[in-house]
Amino acid sequence: MIKTRWYKDAVFYQIYPRSFCDSNGDGIGDIQGIISKLDYLKSLGITAVWLSPCYKSPNDDNGYDISDYRDIMDDFGTLDDWKEMIDGMHKRGIKLVMDLVVNHSSDEHEWFKQSRSSLDNPYRDYYIWRKGRGKNGKKPPNNWSSRFGGSAWQYDEKTGEFYLHLFSKKQPDLNWDNPKVRKEVADLCNYWFELGVDGFRCDVIIYISKEEGLPNGKWNPFTCGDEHFVLGPNYHKYIHELNKASWSKYDSMTVGEGQCITVDDAESMVAEDREELDAIFTFEHQEADAVMTVVPVKFKLTRFKKIMTSWQNIPENCWNSLFLENHDYSRVIPRYIKPEFRKEGAKMLAVAMNFMKGTPYIYQGQEIGMTNIENYGPKDYVDIVSKNVYNIAKKFPPLIPVVNWALQKRARDHARTPMQWSAEENAGFSDAQPWMKVNPNYTEINVAAAEKDPDSILNFYRKLNNFRLGNKVIKDGNYREYYPESNKLFVYTRTLGDTTYLVVTNWTSKVVAFDMPKDLQGKTSKLVLGNYFDSKPEAGDCNVMPYEAVVWELK
Ligand code: TEU
Ligand code: CA
After folding, report:
1. Which candidate, 358, 359, 352, 357, places its Cα nearest to that of 305?
2. Whose CA is nearest to atom 16 of ligand 1?
């Protein structure tokens, strides 16, 4: 199979199905809801969808805990609905990339039910079981922490051993050292490929290979043990094997979730000749306003730019993913943008990101500038992480205000509030009370209002996507950054042949003076795109308005 690498020309839209659109009035988004919005997706100019998990799941972590990899969650519909959805996408020229969550399954998966039933069950070795420490064997086998808080080990009465879970205790880690597990994963990928899927976004794929002996980690409360399983000893071997056994047999794309991956890992993970993943999501830039992903700090543009630029400069045979939002991070408004400038700011971010090299991803609601919920408090928390962290804080009451402050800024819940379709009740998401709180600003921020406004963020995204699709300079052009030390402007060029795009973006709410870089002076210029003016004088020294983005073509 020759890979066309179609993803290099794609613009993705991420759907978090639970919160996208409810078709049958039970307050939960579903597949028929997605089907009803396919024309909307098409109208956005996107060409691929990443769909967060829609498989059978008891929903301890909203579908990231899968109990049957080959069937659809009852809340979302049936396999026939899914077939109708993918057909509808393909008819509109939209590819479908599904979430592949195989570092762990649900504890309600048949494999785990078997595995926990006895020491000599044939499925015992599908998961990672160890004897406990201490006199009575009731102490966890090592000090690794769950990424959701607490120990990564759960004691199981039935057989008197512990199983490993790097996420919740209802998400036991699969044992990839068992060849049968690897075969199961390849088989289930092939199953979905045969049903027409175009690729996979691989959840926490970097954790699949654990170091032999499971040694203790360097202590820290949320990521203890990382050094023993992030890109662990057999990671590359297992991924290459899976690529050969499944992914490479189809004209597919795979993008791996790269929590704590740095630019130095890029080549080993995605260089084409390695035949592993096609792309990864790095989260380094999410640290421009946080430490350890959860502790908020002030956003620093210089830090953000340094990270983005380092990724733009990865070797030629590697590929980038461009994203600001997904279902695990709070919204960029208000993280990077003062809410008074929501419209200008959202468009500016779209330009700054989407003129870079790589595949862009728009997260549902980002195209209308959805924001975090103000005054989001403990009674609202629905995400397992928010709830866990809050419960831990309750044991040490002085921590409560700090935790609430951090969750107000960073809770995953902010990204998961129902999609705001209209100013009607429940934001037009559902006829019934939605499964989680709707952001009260839906009366102003919604798709219907954005459709009517020619100047909306939504219509700007449409323009941008249409401009980007098929544009060779954006796809392949050389990247060069200017003024890296500026904490106000992000300026770069993309050049292919004799065409250069000059991208100037102001990340502040003040007017900022821009000096035309010396080597770009004297060229002819024309305005390509901007969020303030339809025409702007020739490129040159100028004042850049608050959160302005402007792109010139230079010859
Ligand atoms: O996320 C992996 C992950 O570790 C984080 O994004 C996590 O949400 C964060 O560290 C918590 O503070 C993936 C999925 O994207 C996420 O939704 C799942 O919960 C997680 O894996 C488990 O499958
Ligand atoms: Ca529903």
Report:
1. 352
2. 328
Check whether 532 has a pLDDT greater than 80.
yes
Separation of alpha carbons 439 and 132, rounded Å: 45
Q: Please state, in angstroms and rounded to a whole number, the distance separating the CA atoms of residues 22 and 15.
A: 13
What residue has token string 């039933």? Answer: 117
Task: Give the whole-angstrom CA distance, residue 347 versus residue 140.
Answer: 49
Give distance in angstroms: CA of 328 to centre of ligand 1. 6
Quick check: helix, strand or coil at residue 94? coil
Give the model confidence (pLDDT) of 396-412 as tens digits.
999 999 999 999 999 99
Residue 292 has pLDDT above 90, yes or no: no
Other Cβ atoms within 10 Å of 510 Cβ, number: 10
Taking CA atoms, 198 is separated from 12, 191, 204, 362, in Å, by 12, 12, 20, 18
CA nearest 8: which of 461, 360, 497? 360
d(CA 166, CA 12): 29
Parallel/antiparallel/unpaired status of strands 290-291 and 525-530: unpaired
CA distance 376 to 353: 28
**Which residue ranges have their beta carbon within 6 Å of ligand 1?**
61, 64, 101, 147, 167, 203-204, 257, 259, 293-294, 327-328, 385, 412
Of 22, 203, 241, 276, which is the active-site residue? 203
Q: Is the pLDDT confidence value at 158 over 80?
A: yes
Q: Nearest-5° angle of CA 91, CA 97, CA 100?
A: 150
CB-based contact 279:267 (threshold 8 Å): no
Model confidence pTM above 0.90: yes
| Cβ–Cβ under 8 Å, residues 329 and 528 | no
Higher-confidence residue: 535 or 357?
357
What gap in Å lies between CA 343 and CA 17, rounded to an integer? Answer: 26
